Every structure is written in structure tokens, then in C-alpha cells.
């Protein structure tokens, strides 16, 4: 369980997080999304006690991270693959982590094999590719058999097979009752992996909810000869409508829009569904960015 409540953070007078709330429950994967500089890493750093918030609280399994007695046994963290000791081998990195956590018996060959690094354990991490470092970071995060995983951009640098592997590992971890929070820029990947999504923009949580609900929010572009009358009729039925020149963009499925037009006997000149846009469309709408 991860609970972030009313977290606010300012850097040199500049507000980077405003009243951020975030809850990740056992058995689920939460995808944390937002454009560059939105505040994802800062939020994650606050959860794991690396950054202090100005106000608000963050708890992992009911306890502030800094008060956990053996944090590695509770939370597996991968915030930056550059944090690995690059002059040491993969095996040495894992051994150090195991000792820090007080783990007595760890079969490092088994662990390395589980993350696809069998045969690479005795190479220096400096010679690893980015994807290999990510795999080692995941191995390190899982080493203490924690209840919670917090991963910043874990798919970064992974090849397609690696991404599928990562998805499988995280799904299994959550299905076994674990809690996962991961940030990513790969919208389609997050859409496939996460059960819940939290979208942050300029330090504010702009949307959150079950992935299926957030991505199902398709919109319809509609145009008509009597556009004002249609606009009014759609709004009167509680639909969210934005005007884009001589087109209305309605947060609803095509069928709902055409039913209103039929009721009102308004003749349509255009009716298009934007269904497949899903998360990408939601993301762009929330962040106000133009599709390149
Ligand atoms: N130590 C710091 N000192 C000053 N400003 C900081 C510091 N850390 C982060 N920031 C600022 O806080 C804001 C949020 O940064 P953060 O790294 O949390 O965003 P992010 O969503 O993780 O971005 P990205 O997707 O690019 O990794 C940015 O404007 C960043 O410049």
C-alpha cells in the first residue's frame, strides 16, 4: 500500500507539486504518467524518503519510509539505473544489496537468471547496456521479497522482449498481492500494464482512475448546420462539449451524440468517433499539448 496525501513541494520558490494525492492498493499496478517535469520523480522520491515535502504525508504500508526498520524488505525501489555501482559486477551489486538487507541465503545465479542476466553476473555494470542495467535494477528491487515496488521508467532501454518480460514480472508480483507504482512515458505500454492510472501535469493530479475508464473516454467530432442549437442540446444533456472552429468535440460516444441530434432534428454534416486515441488523447488533452 502506498498513500500520498496533500503533498506540496517547492524548489527555490517554485511550486513543483501542489496538493498531490495518490493511493496504490495491494494487488494492483498503478501507472504514473505526465510530461517531462510534471513532478513524477519528485513524488516518488518523497514516497521513498529521499526528498522531504513542504507539507503533506507519504506512507508505505502505513509507515513513513524513513521509519521502516528494514526498508528493502518492504519496498523494492528502482529510481535511477545509474545509481548502481558501475565499477562492480552485477553479482557484487546484488551481494551488497543482500548484505544491506541482512539476507542470509540468496541464490544469486537464480536471481540473475530470473532477470535474463544469466552469464552476465561477473561483468562490470559499467559494461552493461541500459536494458541490462534496468534488469539488474529490477533484480535488486525484488531481492528482499518486498510488498511494494516503486519503479521510475522501468521500461526505459528495454527491447520489445524485455518490455513483455517486465510486464509479466510486474503482473505476477501484483497478482501475488504486491503493490506496484511505476512511472513511464510509454503510454501504450502503461495502458497495457497498469490497472490504475494517475496523470500529473505541472505538479497537479489532473486525472486518476481505473485504466479502462480513463482510456474508454473516447470523444466525438460533430458538425451541423445549426451548430449553436446542437451545442446547447448536448450541453443540456450534461455532455462535455468544446467548440473547435465549426466543429464540436464531445466527450461521448458517437451513438450518444447522434441520438441527441436526431431528437433535436438537427442535420449533421460530420460525425467522427475518436475511440482509438485512448490514453494518448487523454494525455494530450490534459497536458494541453498539440500532437506533433
Ligand atoms: N533538486 C531539485 N532542485 C530544483 N528543482 C528540481 C529539483 N528536482 C526536480 N526539480 C524540478 O521539479 C520539477 C519536477 O521534476 P520531476 O523530475 O519530478 O519531473 P518528472 O515528471 O519526473 O519529469 P521527467 O518525466 O522529465 O523525468 C521540474 O521542474 C524540475 O526541474
From TrEMBL:
Keywords: ATP-binding, Nucleotide-binding, Transport. Transmembrane segments: none annotated. Residues 2-227 form the ABC transporter domain. It holds the Pfam family ABC_tran. One of its GO terms (molecular function) is ATP hydrolysis activity. PROSITE patterns: ABC_TRANSPORTER_1 (PS00211), ABC_TRANSPORTER_2 (PS50893). Belongs to the ABC transporter superfamily. This is ABC transporter. It comes from Cellulomonas gelida.
